[in-house]
UniProtKB/TrEMBL annotation:
InterPro entries (alphabetical): MT_TRM10-typ, MT_TRM10-typ_sf, Pol/histidinol_Pase-like, RNase_P_p30, Trm10_C_MTase_dom, tRNA_m1G_MeTrfase_euk
Coiled-coil stretches: 375-402
Descriptive protein name: RNA (guanine-9-)-methyltransferase domain-containing protein 1
Keyword Coiled coil: yes
One Gene Ontology CC term in the entry: mitochondrion
PANTHER family: TRNA (GUANINE-9-) METHYLTRANSFERASE, TRNA METHYLTRANSFERASE 10 HOMOLOG C
Any single GO BP term: methylation
UniProt keyword annotation of Coiled coil present: yes
Domain of life: Eukaryota
UniProt-listed PROSITE patterns: SAM_MT_TRM10
Length: 661
């Protein structure tokens, strides 16, 4: 079918009338289409049902009914030669895995998805190899993720997804036609090469179906040069068919290479499907040997002194010393000795340490914290190198594509500057103010009293989480009022830079040194603490939820074990905990959630009318819902070997310091 291919319409909608759909397919073939896909639109898949407050509580489900998994309807098949398309709307990233499981035994050949947010699009791009087409809702005006050009280019050029323009809605009314033209021009402005975009009819009736050459002419309305219009119904459609066909084709490549470590194994993961090769006993045994060797490498590795590797350019500058008195200068000298000795024992060492990095190293209270910060600097350095390399490759690829052809040429329709970052920020601020004035929603307070007592690494992690909470809250349809209480401005400037946008005069969020009891009615305040005896049953809408600004990653020695509960008792306010044990089966890890997870759970519970099961399963990390037996034991052993090596390094560092003192 692909060999003698001319044109395709990959979206003829099946509305339940078989005869009508067959007539549409026959008409499309007579019009000159070689391949037609029947669209069975599933809509919202795994969508939680919102409860009506006026309805009486439903009866409890039987245990065997709770485990039932939602299934896809059977595709409508006209002929064996015709591919079938399943269109689904993704609502949250946790559903992507469940969708993949549902599609395993289905008969669908092509899968199209309507993402409802940028997060869903990114999840599908990275993990959704079972998805072929990204489409939009015909009734949508402004599409939130359509202006994120980098994310869309990565999804198309790197992950092989195709974006769809459906023209039939524009034949119905003026408003829909305007939205379609605007959104299509934005999309084609991003994909200047024309690669990764198809045009389909989405026809439900014979009057909405157009021939392939008419479909090409429609692309002119979107700013496409007519000489390049053919690829939207031909070349790009072939790529979709090849992608879906490859999933049903067994491909095998025999590669004979010598692999000594896991880093070399990662190079071949892009060439071959490692998961499929692991099913072959011979290859699986070899891979296990490599992984065992990788794990034992740190257990067997000796801690050897190789001399100071800290370069002169990485020492603190003269300007750095000017900011400190004589007492602190002695502390700087001691810290330099620590870093010098670490560089002599530890290979995972950064090539560049700036004055800002030294200011953070000075905040470390012991050698272990200093070593952890050094490792973080090296990881950040490697991540930046990777990002810069990727940026250069993308820039080079885009320059080549633009030189080859410039599809986008204005044809008289004004292009809207929706992608402007300032415009997006202004819209978010207007939405935030409107929500404060018009909507009665709960309030979020982050108690920052314990942040100064955290380690420098924990301070950075906590501030980073606060930043994400603020950003995620701003882009909600109904943002909640957010306040940082007991905030201390005397923290390290490198730490405070995470929340600079909250400290400026133009910020809509409150950032104050006052306690929350001075700002809000104490009777409305609810302090969330995992150590509380009371559980939060439901959210009314007038609560002031207080969350402790404490990082969940590691145990902090200066922070009380039950810090949030002690804070609530000290301020004489009500404390509650999330009903984790009641709605989810917690299998591993502590029940301390990140700030972002807690806020997301509260907002989802409120939005879904107190659906705790859905909200908790959506936001609790999968690692906490798996037992130790279900987790990857090799990864655990590997990280345990690194921790053991670090422990031996710390012992040698302390010995070396005692010799020098």
């Amino acid at each position: 079918m692909i060999k003698n291919f001319q044109f395709a319409d990959l979206n003829i909608r099946f509305t339940g009338n078989k005869e009508k759909t067959i007539n549409l397919v026959k008409r499309a073939i007579r019009m000159g289409y070689d391949s037609v896909a029947i669209n069975v639109d599933v809509g919202l898949f795994f969508c939680p049902e919102l409860k009506n407050e006026e309805e009486p509580p439903s009866k409890k489900r039987k245990k065997k009914e709770i485990g039932n998994v939602a299934t896809l309807p059977e595709p409508f098949i006209v002929d064996e030669k015709l591919l079938d398309l399943s269109l689904l709307e993704r609502q949250d990233s946790t559903s992507v895995f469940r969708l993949q499981q549902a599609l395993k035994n289905s008969k669908y050949d092509i899968v199209a998805v309507r993402p409802t947010s940028l997060d869903i699009l990114n999840t599908i791009a990275k993990k959704g190899t079972f998805v072929d087409i990204i489409t939009t809702d015909k009734s949508e005006g402004r599409i939130c993720w359509l202006t994120r050009s980098k994310a869309l280019q990565n999804a198309a050029f790197e992950d092989g997804l195709t974006f769809e323009i459906v023209y039939s809605p524009s034949l119905k009314d003026r408003e829909t036609r305007r939205n379609l033209i605007t959104n299509s021009r934005i999309l084609l402005n991003i994909f200047s090469s024309g690669k990764g975009v198809i045009i389909s009819s989405g026809a439900e009736d014979l009057s909405e179906l157009r021939g392939p050459y008419d479909a090409m002419n429609i692309t002119v309305l979107f700013g496409v040069d007519s000489k390049y219009a053919r690829k939207f119904v031909s070349e790009n459609a072939v790529n979709v068919l090849k992608r879906c066909s490859s999933r049903k084709t067994l491909k095998c490549t025999y590669i004979e290479v010598s692999i000594d470590n896991e880093d070399e194994l990662d190079k071949y993961k892009e060439v071959v499907n490692i998961d499929e090769i692991k099913k072959i006993d011979l290859f699986n045994d070899q891979i296990k040997k490599i992984l065992r060797k990788q794990i034992n490498r740190f257990y067997d590795k000796e801690v050897i002194w190789k001399g100071i590797a800290l370069e002169k350019s990485n020492y603190p500058s003269e300007n750095f010393y000017k900011n400190y008195n004589e007492e602190l200068k002695d502390r700087i000298s001691l810290k330099i000795k620590e870093v010098e000795i670490i560089s002599g024992f530890y290979e995972f060492f950064p090539t560049k340490i700036s004055d800002n990095d030294w200011s953070l190293l000075l905040e470390c209270n012991n050698i272990k914290e200093t070593l952890d910060q050094i490792k973080f600097l090296k990881q950040r350095e490697l991540q930046r190198e990777k990002e810069n390399k990727k940026k250069l490759e993308n820039k080079k690829n885009m320059e080549i594509k633009v030189e080859k052809q410039n599809l986008f040429s204005p044809v008289g329709i004004n292009m809207l500057s929706i992608g402007n970052r300032k415009n997006r920020t202004q819209i978010e601020k207007q939405n935030y103010v409107s929500s404060l004035l018009l909507n009665e929603t709960p309030k979020i307070v982050i108690d920052c009293r314990y942040i100064p007592d955290l380690s420098i690494r924990a301070q950075n992690l906590t501030m980073s989480q606060i930043k994400y909470v603020a950003f995620e809250n701003r882009i909600r349809k109904e943002p909640w009022p957010l306040c940082l209480a007991n905030f201390n401005d005397s923290l390290n400037e490198k730490v405070l830079r995470h929340v600079d946008f909250l400290r400026c005069n133009q910020s809509l969020e409150d950032c104050t040194e006052k306690n929350y009891t001075e700002i809000y009615d104490p009777s409305k305040i609810v302090y969330l603490s995992p150590d509380s005896e009371n559980e939060l049953d439901h959210i009314k809408g007038d609560e002031v939820f207080v969350i402790g600004g404490i990082v969940d990653r590691v145990r902090e020695h200066k922070i009380p074990k039950h810090a949030s509960l002690e804070a609530a008792m000290k301020d004489n306010v009500k404390s509650v905990k999330l009903p984790l044990d009641k709605y989810v089966k917690w299998k591993s890890g502590t029940k301390y959630l990140t700030l972002t997870a807690v806020v997301s759970i509260l907002q989802d519970v409120y939005d879904t009318n107190n659906d705790w099961t859905y909200s908790l399963k959506k936001n609790i990390p999968v690692r906490n819902l798996k037992s130790s037996e279900e987790k990857n034991q090799k990864a655990k052993d590997f990280h345990a070997s690194i921790r053991e090596f670090d422990r031996r390094v710390l012992v040698e560092i302390e010995k070396k310091l005692s010799e020098l003192s």
